[in-house]
Every structure is written in C-alpha cells, then in structure tokens.
Amino acid sequence: MDNRINVVLPPENRESIFQAVRNVKNGLPFLVKLSKAERDALLKIDDGRKPFVEKSIELATRNAELDPGLGLLADAPKDVDLYSFLFTLENDLNQLLESVRDTKQLAGAEAFKVARLVYDKAKMNVKLGIPGSQAIVDELGKLFKQKTQPMKAVEVK
C-alpha cells in the first residue's frame, strides 16, 4: 500500500488557516450570493469581452455623446477594476481549492484503504475462529454498509 500523505497539522496551524480564510472574507464584505436564475440572467464578461468593455468606457469618457447617463460611466471603471481583481483572486483560489480537494481525497482514500484492510482482516479472523472477531465484523459491517450522506460545508466564522 502506497502512503503518499502522512501529515499532522498542529491545532495552531489549523486556526491560523481558518483565520486567514476569515480575513479574506472580511476583506470582501461586499460579496453577493446570486441565485442560479440571477446568475443565468446576467450578461457575461470574460477575457474576450473585457477589451470591448474597457474600450467602450474609454471612448465614452472622451465622447460625451456616448455617455449612457445616470452616473453609470463614472462607476464603470470601478466595476472593471473589481472584476479584474476578482478574476485573478478566483484563479488563485481555484488553484488552492483544487490542491485542497486532491489532498483531501488522497488522505481519505488512504484512510479508507486501511479501514478496508482492517475489515477484511476481521472477516478472516472470523474464519480462523478468533474469539470476538464476529462482533467486530458485525459492528464494522453496519458502518460499511451505511449510505454516505454528502457533507455540508462548515461556515468559517
């Protein structure tokens, strides 16, 4: 059995990581949560359309007859700047999240493999007539056969 991950993360490191996540969330108090319908209804900007947006704002700034009014033009550069920052942040966080998910999956797979070996060994011990083995097989069997429930994300406060 390959044991690719063997890590003990001290409690103080865990707390500092959770604090860093809280700091990121606190640094972005304006973040919103959209429903799927709201998300689907919004116009989409991407790397291909960003130059269009930037050029439109630039041209409207220099040509008053292009200003859409209502103060929209004055706020647009702030939206583009925020979009650019959040785009970069999202990429960085996605890379981190991918590594977190992969490491979590590997750690879980390794632990589950050991648990399966223990369960198989307990079943072998039953066949060998080792006292108390059946109780272990019964207990582990109930847990092994349970359907797994998806884990809910824990909110970091």
Give a verbal description of the structure:
This protein is mainly alpha-helical and 157 residues long. The protein has one domain. Helix content is 67%, strand content 0%. The longest helix is centred in the middle third of the chain and has 56 residues. The chain is elongated, with a radius of gyration of 27 Å. The two termini are 38 Å apart.
Total helix count? 5
Order of helices and strands: HHHHH
The low-pLDDT segments are none
Could you tell me the mean pLDDT? Answer: 93
- Report the helical percentage: 55-70%
Radius of gyration: 27 Å
How many distinct folded domains? Answer: 1
The end-to-end distance, rounded to whole angstroms, is 38 Å
What does the overall shape look like? Answer: elongated
The biggest beta sheet reads: none
Oligomer: single chain
Count the beta strands.
0
User: Based on helices, strands and strand pairing, what is the structural class?
Assistant: mainly alpha
The fraction of residues in strands falls at: under 5%
